[in-house]
Every structure is written in structure tokens, then in C-alpha cells.
Amino acid sequence: MTVTIPAADTIDTGQLRQLREADPLIRILDVREGFEFETVHIPGSYNVPLDTLGEHAGDLAELEHPIVLVCQSGGRATQAHSRLTASGKDTLHILEGGMNSWIGSGGEVTRGENQRWAMDRQIRLMAGTVALGSVLLSAFVPKAKWIAAGIGAGLTYVSVTDDCPITPFVAMLPYNRTDRCDIAGVLEDLNREAT
Question: What is the rounded distance in angstroms from the CA atom of residue 121 to the CA atom of residue 117?
Fold first, then answer.
């Protein structure tokens, strides 16, 4: 079976399966937070959270093999793509729909012992709870409705910019804490496998 590297930056789950069969050394970088990666990930993928990736984009751009970027739904992988492209990486792809699509298509996954909600789901729960609570509170304190308006404005900002400024704070919650990414170890593994 001959598989060519797609010219498009976005690939679907079927293309990723074909690429993995054709090149077992293809690099899959999961740019979600460590706790999300520990909960569920594609076997053989490496966890390099988006904030860590930014600091080491040059090192990652030097990898010889193609890289497929994965996050929960595609937003963080798109940001990682921009950073790596700016650092000179040209064989770079985004898994369309991220882990949601991979799991939905029946893709093989490794599940950890601790099952936690994905970052975007936690943020939606928090935003919804605060908005609902402020609307209920506004029955007694009319100005509390502005809290709900602020949440709505924040969600609009996140949708337009595809950047959520509260993500780092949610990642610091006690149940989301994991060991930091060992970027030196990841880079060593990626480079060792290339030879």
C-alpha cells in the first residue's frame, strides 16, 4: 500500500491510520494538558502541552519525520501548528476533530486509571454554572445579571479567537495536576526513534 503525505495541513482519522501504517515512526504530538493525556490518548503519541510546545517549537521543528498534532477538538492543535510552522516545520498536520473524532471513529486509545473530563468540558461546566447562578441571584440582586453578561462576552471572545485565557487556571486545579512534561525526555525519544 502506497500512502503519500497529504498536501493539506488537516487530515482525518482515516488518513492518520494510513500514515501510521505507512510510516510507523510518524510523530503524533498531543498538545493537551497532561491530565487529559493521562486520561486517554492515541497509543505511541507524545504529550507536549501547548504552553511547553511554545518554548521548544524550534527543537520540535527540527524533527525529520512528519508530525500530526492532536488535541481534544482541534483548537489547541491549530495554535501549535502556527507555532511550529513559524519555526520552520513543513511536514505538519492537524488531526481534524482531535481526540473527539479519533474516539468517535473507533480509533485505538490508551486509557489511564484516573478518568477526568477534558479541559473544554470543565470550562463549559464552570461557565454555565456561574452564568446560571448569576441569573438566579439576579432575582435578589438585579446587578448580578452582569456577571452572566460577562460570561457570555468571555465565551464569545473564546469562540472568535480560539484562545481561552482561563485554561492555565483550570489546569492548576488540584484534580488536574500531573507531573510536568519532560520535554527533554520527549525530544530524546523522538530523535532516537528517528535513527
Answer: 6
> In the beta sheet, which residues pair with residue 47?
30
Which of 72-76, 139-143, 147-151, 181-185 is least confident?
181-185
Question: Could you name the CATH architecture of 10-116+179-194?
Answer: 3-Layer(aba) Sandwich (3.40)
CA angle, residues 57, 61, 85, in degrees to nearest 5: 80
The residue-averaged pLDDT of 145-165 equals: 83
- Dump pLDDT digits (tens) for 57-100: 888 888 887 889 999 888 889 989 998 999 888 888 999 999 99
Task: Phi first, then psi: give them for residue 41, nearest 5 degrees.
Answer: -155, 165
What's the whole-model pTM score? 0.71
- Residue 69: CB atoms within 10 A of its CB come to 28
Q: Where are the domains of the chain?
A: 10-116+179-194, 119-164
Rounded to an integer, what distance in angstroms lies between the CA atom of residue 167 and that of residue 51? Answer: 11
